[in-house]
Write a structure and sequence with these properties.
Layout lengths: L3 E4 L4 H14 L4 E5 L12 E4 L5 H11 L3 E4 L5 H6 L1 H20 L5 E7 L23 H20 L2 E7 L1 E3 L12 H11 L3 E3 L7 E5 H13 L11 E2 L3 E3 L1 H9 L7 E3 L3 H7 L8 H7 L7 H15 L1
Parallel strand pairs: 1-2, 1-4, 2-3, 4-5, 5-6, 6-10, 7-9, 8-12
Antiparallel strand pairs: 9-11
Bound molecules: serine (SER).
């Protein structure tokens, strides 16, 4: 029987992924782990294990005792926070990944999922429909750690046969959990301000388009990639993945259709420079060809679903 461990389960993606896996595989097929337990009552229907992913002995013991077949290793310091703490970001992102890859090499788990990001791209990559294999020259520590992590993933696959699979996520948007420390986080905050009837102050320029994705698409992509037959996974660094793409002013327009007095003010800070170094949109032909990826959410549908979802929980 398959048993799935999510490491970093209390973060934005972890919460949504656990709920998605509970629906697909059952509550007892999924175990959450993190250094702190989430308050989400749905997540907490599954078992929780307290785990510091930077401690390889603790990771090894958890995998040995749990009999897990799949590990989703989501621990990371994101782009904006990473720029404030470059060495801590590098240490956390790389150490925790290598711990999981070493344990997989020892045969303690059959499949590993590890998220990469649009942050692998830098100012010299084409901005529109950025392709899978374009030049990666990231300007953030987060991006540097993701490029290095992708190469480590490929290295462990090629040298040790570790079945590690990965997606370069765009900015992720869902109503069940909030992001922290990223550059794309503004898009989630906009919805909270809209429902609070408060003005939204955006830290990016109004025309700074970025690739984005609804959480339901992200979770479905992750689980579909993990279920795909091994021979179909041709990219062992990380797959480009595209959902939709919008700028803060386009998001404002879409929210305005539902919340008529919604208004965004623009006060760009250091995060604008990070966003400007990333693509506006992504070409995900490889994911489409190799494992039949197809996004379901347009920007309009994402906005509608996000507002409905948030209203249902507040
Ligand atoms: N959401 C991430 C960030 O903004 C990008 O993958 O840092």
């Amino acid at each position: 029987m398959e048993k799935h461990l999510v490491i970093g389960a209390s973060g934005q993606l972890g919460i949504e992924l656990i709920i998605g896996m509970q629906t697909r595989y059952g509550i007892h097929a999924v175990v959450a782990s993190d250094i702190r337990k989430s308050n989400d009552k749905d997540v907490n229907r599954s078992e929780f294990i307290s785990l510091d992913a930077t401690d390889i002995e603790a990771v090894r013991k958890t995998l040995q005792q749990g009999g897990f077949t799949h590990v989703y290793h989501l621990v990371a310091m994101l782009s904006a926070k990473g720029e404030e703490n470059p060495i801590a970001g590098w240490d956390l992102n790389m150490k925790s990944l290598l711990n999981v890859l070493e344990c997989a090499k020892e045969g303690l788990v059959q499949k590993v999922f590890w998220p990469s990001s649009i942050a692998v791209f830098g100012p010299n990559a084409p901005k529109i429909k950025t392709s899978q294999d374009t030049f990666c020259d990231p300007t953030t520590v987060y991006g540097v750690s993701k490029v290095a992590g992708e190469l480590w993933a490929k290295y462990y696959f090629e040298h040790y046969g570790v079945d590690v699979r990965s997606i370069r996520y765009p900015g992720l948007i869902g109503h069940r959990s909030q992001p922290g420390g990223g550059t794309t986080d503004y898009a989630v905050e906009a919805f909270y301000r809209a429902l609070d009837k408060k003005p939204f102050v955006c830290y990016l320029d109004k025309d700074e388009a970025l690739p984005m994705m609804h959480m339901d698409d992200a979770v479905r992509a992750t689980l579909d990639l993990m279920e795909a037959p091994k021979q179909e996974i041709k990219t062992r660094t990380s797959y480009n993945l595209s959902g939709c793409s919008f700028s803060p002013s386009e998001l404002n327009e879409e929210i305005f259709k539902f919340v008529s007095d919604f208004k965004t003010e623009y006060k760009p800070d250091y995060r604008q420079k990070i966003a400007a170094s990333w693509p506006d949109s992504i070409d995900d032909s490889e994911a489409k060809n190799d494992w039949d990826w197809k996004p379901k959410f347009t920007t309009t549908k994402l906005v509608e679903q996000m507002l409905e979802g948030l209203k249902s929980i507040v």
